[in-house]
């Protein structure tokens, strides 16, 4: 843990007291970091929320940043294709430039004389920049022999309405931060440093709840108003690393400490959803909307009692409820770490919101995690009537760079 992060953690805990270490996710109502600071009408915003701005995530380590960190308030997902004629040599130079820039950005530092100053006056704001490689990257760079078998294309699902122009890609960059300008600055820098080596294939912009918006640490809600992420595995859970990260000794040593990211743009049919009575919404999900607790009772963290029957003799949590079908115990223990962003891209041609979830999940092997769970959801999830998968991609995300390395060096120069 970096010194800056530890200082910020101590300062925040000192403010929040009993809120605990998870207080890094939100501020305390009424506390020094937990309320909006009104400006003076001139466009200024008053005293800085120091613990938000100063929190710094290390660029180097066993895993890339942007996987284990708490949800960030702002995010950008961008896929690139190598430019015509570009190959492995250009990819090496690109990853060197991107890694150098990412390390400076995550430290809250400007990147060269051409830095636009967008994030000037702000701290690191928990910025993370994460890099991955798509299946086609290995063809373009002559590295097919080093392509992991886990990068086999995802199967088709009945809920797919995929736009090829917004799917796949040679390279992928995930940017997240607790400040919108800091995140945008990173996006602009990544695009500028790309030079002529790549072309943007697609870009998606997302958001989550801002730090300090709730009086205590709480699981985020999605645009359907549902508490979303209750069942996410935790690093302290037995077998967490085995489920999320690639272990040493695998067929592709360059992926040690890495993970596989499944990225899906999931459109939520919000008008249809909002028309459902609350009781029906809760039956679709299998949890109470008010607090995320299972319909069988308890609190958000109470394990659902999938065998409990109601007075009518039917399961309290319906057979097609999302919470039942997606539960690890219903899927042979399949486990993945979900780290999504919400999105809203305006109103579509049909007059409905173009909004939903930028679903990002992390796993050591998508064929044992995302694929079997999605297949089961595809066959009978009640939520499927209210969502539409519009884009899809899968990327190999190598482990974090060691001192003196750039991201992907063990692949590109081994």
From TrEMBL:
Enzyme class: oxidoreductase
Function in brief: Involved in the recovery of exogenous heme iron. Extracts iron from heme while preserving the protoporphyrin ring intact.
Keyword Metal-binding (UniProt): yes
Gene Ontology molecular function terms on file: ferrochelatase activity; heme binding; metal ion binding; peroxidase activity
Dyp-type peroxidase C-terminal domain boundaries: 219-400
GO cellular component: cell envelope; cytosol
Superkingdom of origin organism: Bacteria
Keywords: Heme, Iron, Lyase, Membrane, Metal-binding, Oxidoreductase, Peroxidase, Signal, Transmembrane, Transmembrane helix
Region (Disordered): 288-311
Principal location listed in the UniProt entry: other
Transmembrane segments: 12-38
Pfam families: Dyp_perox_C, Dyp_perox_N
InterPro entries per record: Dimeric_a/b-barrel (IPR011008), Dyp_perox_C (IPR048328), Dyp_perox_N (IPR048327), Dyp_peroxidase (IPR006314), EfeB/EfeN (IPR006313), TAT_signal (IPR006311)
UniProt cofactor(s): heme b
Co-factor: note: Binds 1 heme b (iron(II)-protoporphyrin IX) group non-covalently per subunit.
GO biological process, one term: iron import into cell
Domain Dyp-type peroxidase N-terminal: 64-208
Family that this chain belongs to: Belongs to the DyP-type peroxidase family.
EC number: 1.11.1.-
Catalytic reactions on record: heme b + 2 H(+) = protoporphyrin IX + Fe(2+)
Any coiled-coil regions, as ranges: none
Protein name per its UniProtKB record: Deferrochelatase
Compartments, as annotated in UniProt: Cell envelope
Lineage: Bacteria, Bacillati, Actinomycetota, Actinomycetes, Kitasatosporales
């Amino acid at each position: 843990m970096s010194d800056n992060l530890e200082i910020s953690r101590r300062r925040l805990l000192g403010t929040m007291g009993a809120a605990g270490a998870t207080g890094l996710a939100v501020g305390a109502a009424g506390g020094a970091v937990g309320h909006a600071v009104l400006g003076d009408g001139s466009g200024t915003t008053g005293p800085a929320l120091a613990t938000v701005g100063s929190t710094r995530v290390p660029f180097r380590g066993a895993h890339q940043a942007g996987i284990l960190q708490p949800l960030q308030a702002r995010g950008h997902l961008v896929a690139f294709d190598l430019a015509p004629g570009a190959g492995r040599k250009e990819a090496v130079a690109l990853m060197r430039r991107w890694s150098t820039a990412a390390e400076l950005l995550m430290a809250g530092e400007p990147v060269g004389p051409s830095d636009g100053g967008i994030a000037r006056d702000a701290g690191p704001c928990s910025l993370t920049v994460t890099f991955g490689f798509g299946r086609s990257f290995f063809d373009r760079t002559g590295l097919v022999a080093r392509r992991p078998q886990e990068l086999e294309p995802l199967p088709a699902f009945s809920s797919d309405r995929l736009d090829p122009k917004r799917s796949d890609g040679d390279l992928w960059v995930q940017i997240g931060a607790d400040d919108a300008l800091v995140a945008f600055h990173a996006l602009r820098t990544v695009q500028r440093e790309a030079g002529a080596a790549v072309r943007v294939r697609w870009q998606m912009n997302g958001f989550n709840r801002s730090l300090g918006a709730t009086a205590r640490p709480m699981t985020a809600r999605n645009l359907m108003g549902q508490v979303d992420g209750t069942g996410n595995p935790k690093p302290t859970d037995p077998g967490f690393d085995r489920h999320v990260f690639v272990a040493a000794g695998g067929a592709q040593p360059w992926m040690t400490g890495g993970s596989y990211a499944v990225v899906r743009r999931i459109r939520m049919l919000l008008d249809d959803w909002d028309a459902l009575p609350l009781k029906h919404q809760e039956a679709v999900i299998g949890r109470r909307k008010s607090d995320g607790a299972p319909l069988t009772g308890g609190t958000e963290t109470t394990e659902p009692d999938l065998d409990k029957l109601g007075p009518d003799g039917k399961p309290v949590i319906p057979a097609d409820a999302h919470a039942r079908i997606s539960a690890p115990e219903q899927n042979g223990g399949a486990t993945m770490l979900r780290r999504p962003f919400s999105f809203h891209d305006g109103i579509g041609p049909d007059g409905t919101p173009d909004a939903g979830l930028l679903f990002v999940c992390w796993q050591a092997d998508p064929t044992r995690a995302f694929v079997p769970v999605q297949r089961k959801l595809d066959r009978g999830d009640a939520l499927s009537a209210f969502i539409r998968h519009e884009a899809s991609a899968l990327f190999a995300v190598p482990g974090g760079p060691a001192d003196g390395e750039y991201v992907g060096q063990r692949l590109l120069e081994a």
